[in-house]
Amino acid sequence: MRPLLVSLRRLRAPFLPLLLFAALASSGCGKAAIVEAPTPGSLVLVQGNNQQVQGGPELPNPIVIRVLSTDGSPIGKLPIGFSVVQGGGSVTPGSALSDENGEVKVKWTVGPHEVAQLLRASVPGVEAVNVGALSLLPTDIIIAQGNNQIAKPGAGLPNPIVIRIVGPGNVPMKGIAVAFQVISGGGLISPQSGLTNALGEVTARWTLGGTAGANSLAVSSGALQPLSMTAISQ
Fold first, then answer.
1. For residues 178 and 194, is the Cβ–Cβ distance under 8 A?
2. How far is CA 162 from each of CA 25, 119, 223, rounded to the nearest angstrom?
3. Distance (Å, rounded) from C-alpha 196 to C-alpha 173?
4. Are 72 and 103 in a shared domain?
5. Whether residues 160 and 212 fall in one domain
6. Backbone angles phi, psi at 187, to 5 degrees
7. CB within 10 Å: which end of the chain, N or C, has fewer?
8. Shortest CA distance to 112 belongs to which of 133, 140, 94, 82?
9. What pairing do the DSSP bridges indicate for beta strands 129-136 and 140-145?
10. 3-state secondary structure of 119
11. CB within 8 Å of 25: residues ≥ 6 apart
12. Which of 54, 224, 223 lies closest to 136 in space, CA to CA?
């Protein structure tokens, strides 16, 4: 019997495509591999929950969210969205693709006016994950130094006035505006306002009025209960 294989050179051109198709079909080389994309199954909060910082700045640690498939494997290159739902802060970026570990890192700047802050991470078809934080706000004005001093009329007090602004747990509040106003005695205060330093403090010099007697000074900061300070000119 003649061999079943026939030289391609002896075949007419119209039969070549048919032969090649049959060869590919029989060998399986012509089949395209179909890879199904993993289905998101859950979001996991890896890092950053329940941090606290003074209202306004960025949290000390980034927020890390991981997306997993239905079989528990991390999914890369999947967009995860973030939105601030309470507190008025901001998150950067607002959306990003997960890395090879299925993770996205974002920076969260808390709002300056509300204590409770809430951030939400979401992927379509998956239950969203909420991340909480506390924004520490000023709670008290404290006279750290300078009350009830005595000086001659028209003279400056021997010690500067030092005012401290604190939050919950006496945590110093930085960058908080403090204002001074002479109420009685006719003296001068310098500066009349300032921002607290890293210790939560503002320093001012008080010069008493030219007439002997009591002098008073009001100290205020935002919505906090103002304080009154006194000095004696004699």
1. yes
2. 88, 38, 19
3. 7
4. yes
5. yes
6. -85, -165
7. N
8. 133
9. unpaired
10. strand
11. none
12. 54
* Nearest in space to 38 (alpha carbons), one of 121, 106, 125, 130: 125
pTM score: 0.74
Q: pLDDT digits over 72-121, tens only?
A: 999 999 999 999 999 999 999 999 999 999 999 999 999 999 999 999 99
The mean pLDDT value of the chain amounts to 89
Q: What are phi and psi of 226, to 5 degrees?
A: -70, 160
Task: Give the range of the structural domain holding residue 215, as residue numbers without chain letter.
Answer: 140-233
172-195 pLDDT, tens digit per residue, is: 999 999 999 999 999 999 999 999
Whether residue 124 sits in one domain with residue 44: yes
* Residue 119 buriedness (CB in 10 A; 0-12 / 13-18 / 19+): buried
Pull the structure tokens for residue 227: 């304080």
Q: In sequence order, which ranges of the chain are alpha helices (DSSP H)?
A: 16-27
User: Region 218-229: what's the mean pLDDT?
Assistant: 97
Predicted confidence at residue 37, as pLDDT, reads 84
